């Protein structure tokens, strides 16, 4: 009697195993449903550790199951035009529901944050992003634990735990921000407080085109030397006079916001133009000049109160410093033959502007 019971019980166990395997496979569409690797996994010739490993796939790689082993412990996939097996325990289904979708765009770091080559702590750290800095999220990992971001012209991955979406002050609506000019010399920093690193100095009456504000509205984010930077709003005032600006150089008026577009005319230096709009990153301005409308490069527009200057050229590689002496910190090294704006000369030092960075350099190396 006991032998019969064991046979019946064994049949039930086998039946249950086979039945659950069928349900497991029927619950998804083989060859269509996507999974991602929750860890680095070996690719093997067959469904077991007895089979030879022919390589490793990295954590986060997307796979599409084609077949499962009878015990459901191994999954067969196609990779590089060959069929391989890997452990099914470490694959997770890619969720497509709206609940797991995250919004792309600008985020703020809540703590100092490592930028890595890939979406795991196993990947190399390329740099550390300071707390409070703005990053652009362009993608998320399959498990939504990591974000792919752009920061200071570098792309990498950061943990989602330490970032938060920027929603205050309508940061994405850059068109509503009015131009400002500096009311005195002011430091440019990497973030919205005096705790952040100083990366330059703007002199009085320099035009600033805001692209965002901190959540308190005390600091202005703008493009400085090709990077997103911050300046204290206390040292700024709005440009008035019905959005009227002036050209700081001879500048071409074009049919669209591209140097490859057709030139309408050349607007002379110190000409008055009316601002109609800007492109998304405010590098081009649509203006009206003598009843003609077109686009000009925005960096050649300024307020009427711009300081007088003359042009000069460096005769060798030359350090631009924050003070008129050799103890001053080097802000940037200007190449030989660089065109600079010279504002004043004193005791053998020049106050100059290069690539919108204002500082001091030795006069003898400028002609």
UniProtKB/TrEMBL annotation:
UniProt cross-references to Pfam families, sorted A to Z: SH3_3
PROSITE patterns, alphabetized: SH3B
Domain of life: Bacteria
InterPro entries recorded: Cell_Wall_Dynamics_Protein (IPR052354), SH3-like_bac-type (IPR003646), SH3-like_dom_sf (IPR036028)
Domain SH3b per the UniProt entry, residue ranges: 31-95, 99-167, 176-239, 240-305, 307-367
Protein name: SH3b domain-containing protein
